[in-house]
Specification:
It is a single chain. The protein is mainly alpha-helical. The chain has a single domain (10-300), classed as Orthogonal Bundle (ABC transporter involved in vitamin B12 uptake, BtuC). The chain is 81% helix and 0% strand. The chain has 13 helices and no strands. The chain has helices at residues 10-18, 21-46, 50-68, 74-92, 99-124, 129-137, 145-174, 176-181, 186-208, 214-217, 219-227, 231-254, 260-300. The radius of gyration is 22 Å and the shape is globular.
């Protein structure tokens, strides 16, 4: 059994971690996924699609448990399940006000499939139950070199297409009614974003798992909205938060017995709470100054 000891020398600690291939793969894949989640997560929050992002992970779980039955890697099932779910949601829920209903309908069906496949998986492949566990809770330290390159190529493709779609997507996200009145193809934009989100969620599941997908896909973007008003700045902050949480989570988990996804989730949650409290304090102070100014103006007015 390999044991690790913590050294007060940060450089020595990093050199020790980098000796192990599973840590190198984890850092490389985690970096790519954090960038991808940070960028797409901002639009998830802006478009109020957090429920959809979470549903894609559950739909991906159904696909992953299905392909495990035929001895394929879970990532392929995650992609298939998420993409099929994205197409269904985009086709049935064109506008944001009825999208939650559509997501709920599709999600219920996906849950049923996931339960069926998981039951079959438990009966016929009980000795490989760890694969299903990693889908639920994430297992970034088991990522192979092939997975790292697959993740990198997928990330490049998603970010390139998102850059092409950036301006119309941002316009449609900020004011859906005005964008439609201006003649933007809302169905096409919504479908394209749903597909990009499905791919991003599928790879983010490798880090946090299905049950903790909000930690990378939603929380950094939600935090960034309180720290910046300009979209470009908010996206950069969202990526920085996702990267910081992923790197520090990997570093801490190297010296402890607890999973990486726990540290990532805890760090982004604590940061979100701190930012919310700070934002509330600033607004309260501004409001108090406005009231004081108004009272002074009233007192000195003739």
């Amino acid at each position: 059994m390999v044991t690790f000891t913590f050294s007060p020398n940060l450089v020595a600690d990093l050199e020790e971690m980098w000796k192990w291939s599973f840590m190198r793969n984890g850092f490389e894949a985690g970096t790519v996924i954090a960038v991808l989640a940070g960028v797409t997560g901002y639009f998830v929050v802006l478009r109020r699609s957090a429920f959809a992002a979470h549903s894609f992970s559950d739909m991906g779980f159904a696909g992953a448990t299905g392909v495990i039955l035929i001895a394929l890697a879970p990532i392929y099932g995650l992609l298939i399940g998420s993409i099929l779910g994205a197409l269904a949601i985009a086709a049935l829920g064109r506008r944001s006000y009825n999208r939650d209903i559509t997501v709920g309908v599709v999600l219920a069906f996906a849950f049923g499939l996931g339960l069926l496949f998981n039951s079959l998986y438990s009966h016929y492949a009980a000795n490989n139950i760890g694969a299903a566990y990693s889908i639920l809770f994430g297992e970034i330290l088991s990522i192979s070199t092939f997975d790292v390159f697959l993740t990198l190529y997928a990330c490049i493709g998603v970010l390139a297409f998102l850059a092409f779609l950036y301006r119309p997507l941002l316009f449609a996200s900020l004011d859906e009614d005005v964008a439609e009145a201006k003649g933007l193809p809302m169905l096409l934009i919504g479908t394209a974003f749903m597909l990009l989100l499905a791919v991003a969620v599928s790879f983010a599941v490798l880090v946090t798992g299905v049950l903790l997908i909000f930690s990378l896909m939603v929380t950094p973007g939600a935090t960034a909205q309180y720290l910046a008003k300009r979209p470009q700045h908010a996206i950069l902050i969202s990526v920085a938060i996702a990267l910081g949480a992923t790197w520090s989570g990997l570093f801490i988990s190297f010296y402890t017995q607890y999973p990486v996804s726990f540290y990532i989730t805890a760090e982004v949650f604590v940061l979100y709470i701190i930012v919310r409290i700070f934002s509330w304090a600033v607004k309260w102070r501004v409001r108090r100054e406005e009231i004081s100014t108004a009272m002074v103006d009233t007192a000195i007015s003739p």
